Amino acid sequence: MHIIVLENEVSSLRGGQELSLFDVCFGLYQRGHTITLLYTKEGDLLQQYRVFCTEIVKVDGFRIERKKIIDSLQNFFIDTRKIKTTKDSIVYSNQYHNSFFAYTLATSKNIPFVCHLRLPPLQIKKFGFQWSIGMSGAKHLIAVSSQTKIDWIKQGFKEDKIEVVHNGINTDKFQPSAYVSILKKEWGISDDVKIISYIGRLDKEKGLETLIRGFSLFLKTHKSGKLLIAGKPLCYTEEYKQSLEHLTSELGIADSVKFLSHLTNPIPLYQISDVTVLTSLHSEPFGRAIIESMACGTPVVASRIGGIPEILTGEFQKMLCEPGNAQDLADTLNFVLKWKNLDPQLSVKCREHILRSFNVDKMVDGIETIILKSQN
């Protein structure tokens, strides 16, 4: 099958959805499918896409800008004419924001299209008619969690049109290290220091104020604890990051908190951490950092919200905490650290859970099944 993939910025610096799309495309390529990539902005993943994509096309944009509607429409027609298709072609949009272009392209070529729902429907009013027309023309919608599916059903989309495929990762890439003590020394951290880490966007919906306040309470029982925050603002400015740094000073814990900016390779941080935290306040669609961390053998404390409880199932439900509740976060961190000390197999259990339920092959299986079905 020929799969025409739409992605805005082919970069690993933005978040999990760009990384997940790359894994999907490479997995589909390995199964014999032909991949054409359409993108609007270059990034560090572009060179890796060039290795296996049959064709890569830079387009002007996937949306019609109201202030220059004539130019946008002209560029739409120019860009869609560039794309070569065959009888077995299908359009696959990585996010609903680009669904109008996907629908326009699919309609003009008389081929189907599917759209991935990687985000909750929080910004739909901003795009008005474009997303509503585009998504109504999708053959299938792929939600990254059952909760995300529910969120979109509440927006009026039919239940039978949305299928759930949880994200998966390459567990050969994300795995524990046998040299944690050496890694800690490289980071300038002694073995007796408890490391709590956050890896992700520095945006308000991620609940970073709760994380910092909860860590401040955690320090009352773990004086040598250290919080490492890796990431950069995406939807907010550097001023927001500065406000978080100011909060650590207000709470008197600035010496125990370190902001690391974006990490190209977060794996060593997962490996040296005692616990990874995701304190989301919004309906988090999935939470890729959770499965990355657990694949590295590091347990995760995360908010009981969105699709997160679909990852932390069974005995791992004990790692869930209430969104926005700093005291509950601190209590859950203490509980998980005690659990880790009492159960030396906890790291192994974390990894086995991801190997079993959230591996990259299982994700590609699900998406491939939906794409093939969309051809009928």
Overall description:
- It is built from 15 helices and 13 strands.
- The longest helix is centred in the last third of the chain and has 17 residues, at 326-342.
- Strand 6, helix 7 and strand 7 (162-164) form a beta-alpha-beta unit.
- The strands form 2 sheets. Strands 3-2-1-4-5-6-7 form a 7-stranded parallel sheet, sandwiched between helices.
- The protein has 376 residues and is an alpha/beta fold.
- The mean pLDDT is 91.
- The radius of gyration is 21 Å and the shape is elongated.
Structural key phrases:
16% strand, 13 strands, elongated, 7-stranded parallel sheet, alpha/beta
Short account of what is shown:
The protein is α/β, with parallel strands linked by helices.
User: Biggest β-sheet: count, sense, barrel?
Assistant: 7 strands, parallel
| Low-pLDDT residue spans | none
Strand order of the largest sheet: 3-2-1-4-5-6-7
Structural class: alpha/beta
Tally of DSSP β-strands: 13
Q: What number is the mean pLDDT?
A: 91
- Separate helix tally: 15
Topology of this structure?
Blueprint: E1 2-9, H1 16-30, E2 34-41, H2 46-52, E3 55-58, H3 69-82, E4 89-93, H4 99-109, E5 113-117, H5 124-127, H6 129-136, E6 140-143, H7 146-153, E7 162-164, H8 180-186, E8 195-199, H9 208-218, E9 226-230, H10 238-250, E10 257-261, H11 267-272, E11 275-278, H12 288-295, E12 300-303, E13 320-321, H13 326-342, H14 346-357, H15 360-374
Parallel strand pairs: 1-2, 1-4, 2-3, 4-5, 5-6, 6-7, 8-9, 8-11, 9-10, 11-12, 12-13
